[in-house]
């Protein structure tokens, strides 16, 4: 049985308008439920036919969040012309799309959803959300390799952020990233003359592959979704604070801005040179 909700709340949850505006529309007789003019405070469900100004009220699709253990060979795209596209591989009955990417030769956790707004929030670089990987390379790992991977390497015209790297066997390590540069781990390894032979994503934020076998997927739990939403909200608040601080400091001259940028680049280069010694 569909859940009963007050009519004003039901209307607002579709995104049509606020509860206050919904009350106004109801009072003005612009809303009908099953062809009849409703009383204030009436409760409705998905089984009821609701019209506003003679037009059916369109409901928002129920949020869908999936965790998928992507096998090697599946492409993180919704392009239907690609026979290896991730949407076809999963075969979900509603329209969904991946949050971010995972290279075709890589395997492991990738999230999918039908909520476009949350995709942008999770992918936003400034949010610093953790992603953990298990990586196997083509030759024995040295302490120097671990140190340099953890402390930043020059790829794609930048220095990678410091990260946590842990050796777990002669040729395998785990790495936790908070940025998502294109083919970042593979490029970092290549810079140190290593080739990645196996790359598996184990975790995104608080979501893990768990018992999922390659090719299997599951719905996220309510607890997992709440933790994601909480982390996103916290990141958004930090970004608003940063924007406010930026506006307050906007009086600085163009020369000062350039000087700061140059100083930051010099510090990055100095840190990288120190890491090499």
Automatic annotation (TrEMBL):
Name of the protein in its database record: Pseudouridine synthase
UniProt similarity note: Belongs to the pseudouridine synthase RsuA family.
EC number in record: 5.4.99.-
Enzyme class: isomerase
Annotated catalysed reactions: uridine(2604) in 23S rRNA = pseudouridine(2604) in 23S rRNA; uridine(35) in tRNA(Tyr) = pseudouridine(35) in tRNA(Tyr)
Keyword Signal: no
Record PROSITE patterns: PSI_RSU (PS01149), S4 (PS50889)
